[in-house]
Amino acid sequence: MISARIKDIDLIFQTDDVLFSPHGIDVGTMSMLSVVEFLPGDKVLDLGCGYGVVGILAAKLIGEKNVIMCDISQQAVDFAKRNAALNDVPNVDIRLSNNYDHVEENDFTLILSNPPYHADFSVPKRFIELGFKKLVLGGRMIMVTKRLDWY
After folding, report:
1. Which CATH superfamily is domain 2-150 in?
2. d(Cα 137, Cα 142) in Å, to the nearest integer?
3. Is the dihedral of CA 64, 114, 18, 120 positive or negative?
4. DSSP secondary structure code for residue 144 in this structure
């Protein structure tokens, strides 16, 4: 069990060794969240949600109906749903999706992601290339990056 206080919100997460950062919230995610301001009226996509840290925090701050979370891993989706319930946001929309494949909406004000970088940059590259179609005019994508110059 992971306990964290982020943006004055107490959160708890169950996770598993097969998921990313199973023993604590990683530095990249915490750094990204330190620069994100969630505003009333925001609609957030947590792209590659893992066990749910980013999307659950967003749902606590701006409401469940304003957040969609997705991941390519069924196990991640299952843990994110379990963690949403543990953190009293059981109705947040959490989907199984490879990239944007099952995200039809195109009215997000924020897309947040700490994408996988294991082999190469093809996943984050696709997140970026397709993400602009999912944002409203003036919307923002905020991502954890490994090599800033590449982006």
Report:
1. Vaccinia Virus protein VP39 (3.40.50.150)
2. 15
3. positive
4. -
And the tokens for 108?
């997000």
Evaluate whether 112 touches 58 at the Cβ level (below 8 Å).
Answer: yes
| Dihedral pair phi/psi, residue 90, rounded to 5° | -70, -15
Q: What is the pLDDT of residues 67-84, one digit of tens each?
A: 999 999 999 999 999 999
Each domain of the chain, given as residue ranges in start order, spans: 2-150
Whether 70 contacts 94, CB under 8 Å? yes
Among the listed residues 123, 2, 6, 18, the one whose alpha carbon sits nearest the alpha carbon of residue 76 = 18
pTM above 0.85, yes or no: yes
Name which of 52, 53, 59 is nearest 38 in CA terms. 59
> CA nearest 36: which of 143, 127, 148?
143
